[in-house]
Amino acid sequence: MKKKEFYNLLKSVPKAELHLHEEAVISKETINKLYKENLDADISEEDMKSLFDYKDLAGFLDSFIAIQKFFTKIENLYYITDDLESYLLDNNISYCETFFSPTSHLKKGWDFKEMSKLLSDGAEKILRDTGRTVRYIVDVSRSFGLENAQRNLDLVIQAQNPYIIGIGLGGNEEAAPAKDFQSVFENAIKAGLHVVAHAGETVDSWSMKDSIQLLHVERIGHGISAAYDEPFMKELAENQIPLEISPTSNTFIGKYVKSIKEHPIKKLYDAGVNVTLNTDDPTFFKVSLIDEYWNVYKNLKFSLDEIKQLIKNGFNAAFISDEEKKRRCDEVEDKWRAWFQSHPQVKL
Questions:
Q1: In angstroms, rounded to a whole number, what is the distance separating the alpha carbons of residues 100 and 83?
Q2: Average pLDDT by consecutive 10-residue portion of the chain (348 residues)?
Q3: Sheet holding 15-21, edge to edge
């Protein structure tokens, strides 16, 4: 299938995205708005370009932190709502679970309940305007230690916000291994929250094993190192623990793969592992969800039927009821069939 036809097809079919950092959908217009509020001037083209001119993980993190610093007032968080809404519409994402990282904002003295209210207001606006569902997973963050992680969890529990459905463990998995946060995740599960963790992104499969065995996570963010541990890959397939894979992000990090053509997502898929497709940080990696589907279709020889299954995997791995999973997967089938019926010249 040609690229134009593929994008047209994928735009017509509803999708889920489960590994998306909310700040990472920020638009250049929003960056300029924040910059102007801070410095009473438009950001220069050179300064804007430098924000996205990085060649490695350290440079990316510096840019991410620099942009976070532009958020000087708690109300600024609501600016992301329009950017997220546009991103969901552009990619026809009907269900999204997005990470929210509160720690840097809490260090500014911002109130978590106020931030939580802005998040729920944003999700309600998006649902009202577009019919699309947004839920939040709060990053308790490895980067700031166990005490901070527990504090973030405590704030989530106290807020009792129905739009915040779980916690996630992000950050440097080698410097702060999953086992250090076992008590936090035990407490989250007791509180009825969903739990996920970034693992197997930059270290071997032991990080994933610890996340599953000690943290009892329901999904793994990234998880590509499983492809290099055959017994564990088989175990993942048997237990159907979903992986939230982001090929462009993995390629940029460069720990296990240097190009999309080397990416192990097809190997994992063929082994029966429950893989889902995501972007991680679309603005920073200059990639959309539909782009990622095209990348694996073109470069890794996923068939169109397998692309459709990847889309359905996203809904089936989401934290929604079985009834909603079936309804959303049925809609995928309906829209897929309708597109081909209206494009009889395109063959499967």
A1: 15
A2: 96 98 93 87 89 83 83 91 97 98 93 96 98 98 94 97 97 91 98 98 95 98 97 97 97 93 98 98 95 98 97 98 98 97 86
A3: 15-21, 93-100, 133-139, 164-169, 194-199, 219-222, 243-245, 275-277
Residue 198 CA, chain-centre distance (Å), reads 10
Q: Residue 55 has what DSSP assignment?
A: S
> Are the CB atoms for 310 and 277 separated by under 8 Å?
yes
* Prediction pTM value: 0.95
CA within 13 Å, CB half, 132: 26
The C-alpha atoms of residue 56 and residue 24 are separated, in whole angstroms, by 16
d(CA 81, CA 75): 11
102: its two tokens: 């509160």
Tell me the Cα Rg of the chain. 20
Catalytic status, residue 201: yes
- Check if the beta carbon of residue 245 is closer than 8 Å to that of residue 266: no
Residue 116: how many other CB atoms lie within 10 Å: 22
Geometric angle at alpha carbon 158, from 153 and 161, rounded to 5°: 95
The secondary structure element, H or E, covering residue 104 is helix 103-106
- What amino acid is encoded at 1 in this protein? M
Beta carbons of 221 and 201 less than 8 angstroms apart:
yes
What is the C-alpha to C-alpha distance for residues 167 and 102, in angstroms, rounded to an integer?
A: 11
Rounded Cα distance between 218 and 228, Å, is 21
The Cα–Cα gap between 148 and 164 comes to 18
Query: In sequence order, what DSSP letters do the residues of 127-138 get, joined into one string?
Result: HHHH--EEEEEE
Burial 294-317 (b: 16+ CB within 10 A, else e): bbbbeebebebebbbbbbbbbbbb
Q: Which amino acid is at 70?
A: F
Cβ(162)–Cβ(134) under 8 Å? no
Catalytically annotated residue among 17, 23, 173, 201 = 201
